[in-house]
Amino acid sequence: MKMNKKMLAWVIMACLSLSVQAQIAKWLVRPNYDFIEMMDYGLLKVASNGKIGLLNKEGKEILPLEFDSITAFKEERALLFKYGKLYGITDPYGQIFSIEGKEYKLPDGVNRFYSGLLLVRQNNQYFYLNTEGIQVFGPFAEAYPFFDGHALVKSYADYPKNPNETYCDFINTEGIPFVLQDEDKKDISFMSSFHNGRAIIAIKKKFYTIDSETYELTPISIDSTFNKKSLVVSPAKEIPIIKGDEGYLVGAKNGKFIFDQFMRLKYMELLGNEPVISEFPLESERTYTSVFKKLSKDNRYGLVFKGKELLPPQFDEILHLEDDLAIVKSDGKCGVITVDSDNNFLFKLNNNENIGFNHQYYDAKLTTLMPPYIKCTSATVASHSEDCEIQIESRTENENVEGNTLTYNCRLSIPKDLTDTLTAHDYFYSLRYDGLLSVPHKVTISEWYVKYYEVNLSNTNFSISSANDTISVEFDLIKTDVARNDESNYFKNVEVVASNFSEQPILNKITENHYIFQLFGIDQERINFSVRITEIGCPTIEYPFEMVFVKPKPRERNKKTTVTITPIQKKTTPVAKEIILLD
């Protein structure tokens, strides 16, 4: 059967479509750390021996391992602590704005910038620092972070002369105090921080809400009449503020207020009204997805990349998966795995040439092509196929700027079911490199069993007198062209088997390669028989023949039966050469 060009092209394309370049898992960060945490801006917080540093998204160090702690990034700034003290401020590029020696401390609950300003405490006074660590506002007797563009502070009336004389105030992000129309700030007895555009303020015992944009005051009333009896007022000129577990409690004659640690209103209960509860948005958690999933077996863990196994179970733990990064623990240390989609490693067996087995074994070369960053000294190849033995001592290495190569000699064992027809056969290999173990990859090579002998019949045409005659057939085993120069006679077993005759042939060995078999009592028109040659450790090769008996016609003078023996030709189908480097 001939294959036309269109069909052949289709087969070749189908074969090529099975050739897959494998994704390479590689270390972005080698497992040298006690702890690794992913942060915003693609940064990695790393820890070793109790000290913390930062790596960028390429795994390069941007802050050395010398800090006690590093806060999360907020507003593109994180805080650095060293020697148990606030040491400085850093940006996502690792630039440090040092405030060492200033002896700044953070007020309770403050660990980040608000509106580009950081509230700090120094010698029981409060200051605000800008994003470069420069002191821009202060001192204040008390202060809170910025909300809605304003910060609640307690300012000094005249600090040098009388540091105990203070008053409540708001400042904006430029440090400018607010202006209260038609009221004197000295009459203010209480103020809260802004939340959702409103704050609580008490002037001359009366409670108001104040707008963060217009500073407009609105009296707080228990009903809509806003008469003298319905207004919410303090029982005394000095408004008591009680600090409790829930925050700050401020009482009134006909209501109460509860504020959080930053003086934001979180609960208001007025006489005859349902309580009003404020919700504070939680710090938004980092959201992320991952191209990885983890897999496990026998308390070891591996990685799946886009639905396909990338690394078999080999790690102590998979700690975190985010984007194209995986934090893993290996031998008690943490590292980061990523995927190199631009490179691949390839296994080439026998230089991708078809393999013809003459005997039980075939010696081939296995070559592994790797990208330049995988050094030969860190790499070894393992066979996962019983019929391929890698000869470790034959290993050779070659490294250059384009890529690195490992080469081994391999001894292949002939597949048990291999025939003399070209057949695809799979081998599996894995690569151990840089402390990682790849999944087994498939290499498909077309193979066939090369006939070492041909069967040559000495007598293919002869006559017999009757069905009772004994038929004797001699044959020789002749070495084929591929074996002409091989003087060895390999141990083999020779059989002759008839497939459609009740009595099996009797075979006699005359010499190493010369045989004779006999058949008795033949009374049928044709007999199919095969000469089977089985070399030790190899499949059987079968040589089929057909023996045809032609009896004389009734009036024919020659009364003998003619016997003709012809080989039976196998039907073969062309096989396109198929090379599958990796699966």
TrEMBL record:
Keywords: Signal
InterPro entries referenced in this protein's UniProt entry, alphabetically: WG_beta_rep
Domain of life: Bacteria
Keyword GTP-binding set for record: no
Signal peptide: 1-22
Protein name: WG repeat-containing protein
Organism, scientific name: Phocaeicola intestinalis
